[in-house]
Amino acid sequence: MLIVAGLILLLLVAGASAALYHGLRLSGAASREREQWLAARALLAHAPMQPILVRSDLRLDMPPRVADLFGLVQPATDLDGLSSAGGGLDPLDVERIMADLLALQRSGRPFVRQVRPRGAARTLTLHGERSPTHGQGTDMVLWVHDASEAQAEVERLANEQAQVREAFEALTGLIEAAPMPMWYRGPDLRLAMVNTAYVQGVEGNAAADVVARGVELIEGSGHGGPLAGAIAARETGRPEVRVLPATIGGARRSMLLHDVPLPNGGVAGFAIDIEDLEQARARERRFADAQRAMLDRLSAGVAQFGRDRSLVFCNQPFRRMFAMRSEWLSDRPEFDRVIERMREANRLPEVRDFPGWKAERREWFTRTDAAVEETWHLPNGVYIRVVAQLLPDGGLLLIFEDRTEEVQLASARDTLLRVRTATFDNLFEALGVFAADGRLQLWNNRFRALWELEEEFLNGHPRVDAVAEKIAPKLRTPNRAKLVTDLVRSATTDRQQRGGRVALADGRHYEFAAVPLPDGNALFTMLDITDSRRAEQALRDRAAALEAADKVKTAFVANMSYELRTPLTSISGFAEMLHAGYAGDLSEQGTQYVGAILESVERLGLLIDDVLNLTQAEGEAPLVREAVDLPALLAGAAEARRSDADLRAIELVTALDASVGQVTGDPGRLREAMDHLLRHALNATTSGGRVLLHAEGDPNTARIIVSDDGAGLDADAVSRAFDRFAQAANTENGRTPDLGLPLAKQFVEAHGGTITLVSEPGMGSLVTVALPR
């Protein structure tokens, strides 16, 4: 029993101990739970969102703090209590909240709604959701948050967003409307946006397509590629500017590229077409180079100083004129140093106060009036004209012109004028110079004395018609005075030289002329030709007498030639009878004598025929006009002379081209002319020589050439070959005159042709006859 009782007591003690331990543990847990509940309650009391427990029957458990947020005097117990006469929500907002809660009960979908208590400036945000403490129950929690400050911030941000959006839209519109290509690259430097000008520049369809394909405005890659500037701008954080070529609209254009880094790591860019500017700069450079090249070719020295008064350019004449070395000028010396250098080279005028003189020239940089011009007389007798022109950029342009030669020429001109005046007044001719308007400008004493004009009249520079009126009474025929007016006007207006002769009333004769002068004036000259006129008349009378005597001589020679033919015929006949043996047989020596007589008779007969032909005047023996076959005529003439050529062992060659054809003329005269030419060539050729008769032609002319390889003629003989009088006088050493060439010339020219002779000693002769068709 005791043991049992002890065991029971032990069990009871153990159970009490276990119960005490469990109770203490539960008491500790309860204490911790209470502490956590108090902490959560305190945290909830100060949380920015306060809960309203909404029962399934839509009754409310509202904390006092939430009632204060709604502007209620005491917490509401139902939804209708959210709206009261003294505050709360608008009934319309209450209805909307009720609809949201009913929807939450049915679907479990949370909701958010903002409300504004009546009479309050605060904004409340309501978050509705199912209660997490009731499992599957229909209780709900309506979290209330005072969003007044957040709403103000939201409204401020919304306003800022609207402003930013407007600014962005305006900027976007500006970029789109910009005439220059513009683009934006993202942090990866790939194209993210381009404007319309960019799309047109790369000939794309749309901005999105260009961005998607990454079409770059600038071709190439590497350091000169389109990304080089963007990379440099992003790395340095400063805008990069480059000039690169691009193909815009099918043409190469120079583009000024700007790459601007942005804070977000992207890079914005735009391109300005500076092709026209580059071309203008190139034209300006070319113009400057051409201007400097032109200035180097000028005879005047040119020096240009900049705004800082340093020498920026000088041409070669300036360097030579003032003995300036190129290496010294390369340092761009200042104006004062240049002046001093001129003085050292003795290229400045000698002045007493050189510093003051130099200071006056330094004022050229500040003058506002027109260009300054002055003349420097250098010690060595050189005259320099100096022109100082202020430039628009504040610089100064100096021009140095060497006038020494001009001054010398002016002095020489004055001397020449004095010499001309003295010469003018002492000339034998009467001279007058008329201006382009017809007024008498200059005259000499001979002019005034010839026409007996008053000095007062001449000093008034009268017109030419007034002068003509004054001189008319002095002429044998007064109407001839009008010719002076016509001649002066022809020389001044038409620039033609004309002249004539006039007889004075006193019997003197003058030759006059009006000559146009280079300055537009006219020189009227009159020369006394009274004596020469008398001599001319005497010569004219003598020429007439000589012409009559020549006709008498010609007639006499012709008559004598006819008279000579009668005894010559008798001599020829008796000599032929003796040679034929009619008077008996002759001895061998007698036969030789008779042969010599016959040969002399033949030669004398030919000579008489030639003399008769020469003495015939043109027109006395008219030519026969008919078609002449030149090849047959020339071949006949050659055959007629072939026996003579064979007898003298001379080769006679003919080369007659079919193109020689026919001409219209006198066959007898042409045959006689060819016979004379062949006979002349045979006579000029020694034994074993060669004579060539060649003929050819074209549609307008027939050409006949007779050449030989004889001794030839010198220049004097060639000049007299066709002169019949020179041939008649050529009887030296007992030679018979050769009248063949003069006769041939006479016959050829009668047909309208020409004949020429070319010959040199030892080279033979060549005669060319040209006959028109």
Automatic annotation (TrEMBL):
It catalyses: ATP + protein L-histidine = ADP + protein N-phospho-L-histidine. CDD domains: HATPase, HisKA. Keywords: Kinase, Phosphoprotein, Transferase, Two-component regulatory system. Pfam families: HATPase_c, HisKA, PAS_7. One of its GO terms (molecular function) is kinase activity. Its EC number is 2.7.13.3. Residues 559-773 form the Histidine kinase domain. It comes from the Bacteria. It is an enzyme of class 2 (transferase). This is histidine kinase.
